[in-house]
Design a protein that fits this description.
Layout (H helix, E strand, L loop, with lengths): L1 H36 L2 H25 L4 H30 L4 H4 L2 H31 L3
Helix pairs in contact: 1-5, 2-3, 2-5, 3-5
Length: 142
């Protein structure tokens, strides 16, 4: 009887350990994605500032030449690029505000796994949005 109890306890312990390791690995993946894109926030802000200055100059030129189709197109592109950069910044801020690692300690294993899977998808979306907005802004040629 003691042997059966020992094996049940051992198997249960191994299962809990396995679940805990899986949760830790997934949590580490989520944070690794976050940590890989967080340094790019300053780049994103610098691009936003540069393009805003470009937009101000374009607006001034457009005031002097309101029918210039090239300036109208440039203005539209700059507005779109700036909006995309701001959107990426807001998406990152929103994700960071919503992500709560403390929640994991209060959830059962399946719920914690689902929470982390959803957070991984969310931060991957933020990463993709940031990368695209930065690349688009960098490739814009005035």
């Amino acid at each position: 009887m003691k042997t059966i109890f020992f094996f049940i306890t051992l198997i249960g312990g191994l299962f809990l350990s396995s679940c805990s390791e899986k949760k830790t690995a997934l949590k580490d993946e989520v944070m690794a994605i976050h940590d890989s894109i967080m340094p790019r926030m300053s780049e994103l802000m610098d691009l936003q500032e540069t393009l805003t200055l470009e937009l101000t100059q374009t607006d001034s030129l457009l005031a002097a030449h309101p029918a210039d189709s090239a300036l109208i197109s440039r203005q539209s592109q700059l507005q779109r690029l700036i909006a995309n950069l701001k959107g990426a910044d807001q998406a990152m801020m929103h994700w960071m505000h919503e992500y709560n690692a403390d929640t994991l300690t209060k959830l059962e294993a399946k719920q914690a796994d689902l929470y982390l899977q959803n957070q991984k998808k969310a931060i991957e979306t933020v990463r993709d949005q940031m990368q695209k907005s930065i690349t688009d802004a960098q490739t814009f040629r005035p």
